[in-house]
Design a protein that fits this description.
single chain, alpha+beta, five-stranded mixed beta sheet, 7 helices, about 60% helix
């Protein structure tokens, strides 16, 4: 059998395996539904923490540091495919022990310093444990992507008692979020000529640099307004 035929057969077997796993997860749904509900509860817990912080941090300041909060829990198909990608067993235990981004919360802040101020206050809470931190604001990805990524562990309280859950938190400014959303839509368009794709990547990188300058300028303006207001009151 030729290498091409062997590769085609292997891909077919892999596809069948994925479909079988998905069928199993969908058929035996009660424990899967319970798992997804736990992750949804974890998302709600983290969202509540950020909403409370937003109110508390605005008491002595001039603005609410958080503009918006978005959240999601991965769909079953996406979870199964990620387990397969990492050669992990297709079980609920494997999900809960190995996948740390099933539950995700994205926090959009007004200014760059707000991102770090809110993050520090969030991580200072006793029931929030930092597992991993990746600062793509200070160290952007080659594409220009910027965001602060936190993998945290926090408890939820179920009918069976306390349960620790992993949640991925992404924190960024409005400008960073605008760029990332459009970059994702544009980059993953299909059937793009490779040369055009390369040119678009360069233009997207330039747009990312423009968004950096926009964040810096808006922060400078805010600081000048604050300084002027403080001088007027003295």
């Amino acid at each position: 059998m030729s290498d091409g035929k062997e590769n085609e057969l292997a891909q077919t077997n892999e596809k069948m395996s994925t479909e079988q796993y998905l069928k199993q997860f969908h058929t035996d749904f009660d424990p899967v539904y319970s798992m997804l509900t736990d992750y949804q509860c974890a998302v709600m817990e983290v969202e509540t923490k950020f909403r409370i912080l937003n109110n508390r941090l605005s008491i002595n300041g001039e603005h609410n540091p958080i503009e918006s909060i978005k959240s999601r829990v991965k769909e079953i198909d996406s979870i199964v495919r990620k387990l397969e990608k990492h050669h992990l067993p297709i079980t609920i235990e494997a999900v809960e022990e190995n996948l740390k981004d099933v539950a995700g919360v994205r926090v959009i802040c007004s200014f760059v310093d707000d991102v770090y101020r809110v993050a520090d206050s969030f991580l200072a809470q006793e029931d929030v444990t930092l597992i991993e931190r990746k600062d793509y604001i200070k160290n952007p990805k080659p594409s220009g992507y910027r965001s602060l990524h936190l993998i945290i562990r926090t408890p939820i309280y179920t009918e069976n008692g306390k349960k620790d859950m992993f949640v991925e938190v992404q924190m960024r400014t409005i400008a960073m979020d605008f760029w990332a959303s459009l970059e994702h839509k544009l980059r993953y368009k299909k059937n793009i000529n490779p040369e055009i794709a390369e040119q678009l990547a360069k233009e997207l990188k330039a747009c990312a640099e423009e968004s950096v300058r926009l964040d810096e300028k808006m922060l400078e303006i805010r600081n000048r307004i604050s300084a002027d207001a403080a001088g007027s009151q003295s």
